[in-house]
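Renewal narrative, Specific Aim 1. Our central claim is that a sequence can be written position by position from structural information alone. The example that follows is taken directly from our test logs and has not been curated for this report. It begins with the structure tokens describing the chain, in the order in which they were read.
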């Protein structure tokens, strides 16, 4: 999967959303050929910030 231009990942907060985010991020990792995520920037709020920190 190739993203052209700039792409950012925003992870919202809110309890159960953090668990859903992990599943989506795992699927994105499986779709990409490299170990790095195809995003120029990653940010999050609350539980999303914890996931963003783990990705960084």
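The sequence written for that structure reads:
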């Amino acid at each position: 999967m190739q993203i052209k231009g700039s792409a950012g990942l925003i992870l919202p907060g809110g309890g159960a959303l953090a668990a859903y985010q992990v599943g989506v991020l795992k699927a994105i990792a499986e779709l990409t050929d490299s170990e790095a995520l195809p995003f120029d920037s990653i940010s999050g709020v609350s539980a999303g910030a914890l996931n963003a920190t783990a990705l960084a």
